[in-house]
Amino acid sequence: xxxxxxxxxxxxxxxxxxxxxxxxxxxxxxxxxxxxxxxxxxxxxxxxxxxxxxxxxxxxxxxxxxxxxxxxxxxxxxxxxxxxxxxxxxxxxxxxxxxxxxxxxxxxxxxxxxxxxxxxxxxxxxxxxxxxxxxxxxxxxxxxxxxxxxxxxxxxxxxxxxxxxxxxxxxxxxxxxxxxxxxxxxxxxxxxxxxxxxxxxxxxxxxxxxxxxxxxxxxxxxxxxxxxxxxxxxxxxxxxxxxxxxxxxxxxxxxxxxxxxxxxxxxxxxxxxxxxxxxxxxxxxxxxxxxxxxxxxxxxxxxxxxxxxxxxxxxxxxxxxxxxx
Length: 325
Prior knowledge:
By secondary structure, this protein is mainly alpha-helical. The chain contains 15 helices and 2 strands.
């Protein structure tokens, strides 16, 4: 969905969004999400303050006329009432509400602390909804091997290479789609363009190198429309995110996992979990491999599987000591 915030946003909001796009180098998709979050908030405020007819369609409310005086009147209470609206009327979960809350805080911090349009940040004390902490879903080592062994068909070298990179390098699906063959370097490393156009480099193990070499030996050359793309579709285009997702779902379904909530992102979780649990990779190293901005995001992989917990209990030297009769 194309979002034209240039046409719908008021000047100060445009300034913030352009700052995010050009200075912070946020992706167009991320900037669009910021705009949609903030547009919903300002539409809500117009309704709450009685600035639009009571029968007005919420989705038709314009925000391009909002000025500095409107922003100066925003207070913490209105923000919390908006959070209640998102919960009760929109029925958004804690994760979605937390994202919209972060969008609000980011905008008001920008116009108060950086641009000084406001003398103080009215939402500085706004707290994010507590999100339910859940362990990431991932494939076991046995399921991962089964998934790789399920690859077949006329594009098996390509498909096998994609799954191997997911499971060994923990790429995001958007990163996989953006890969160019020149990103594979002679020192056996892979350049990845991640979120916010941030680059990182990961080392390719022998499984990845073998899979890539097998694919490159059959990778189409003639008639390819994007000659720099690493992974080519059957129509000789760069493989899109949706095409890669469909490929992953096909093989997950083949091994009976499609209905269990698995996806491309779960393969990223799998790579991280296998490296941590079986490889003993330090969580700080894992952070760099995955391209996380904060260590806290990576620390979710420090969970222990039930099998590990069982083994830990059995390894206690007192586990063999029993009461004497």
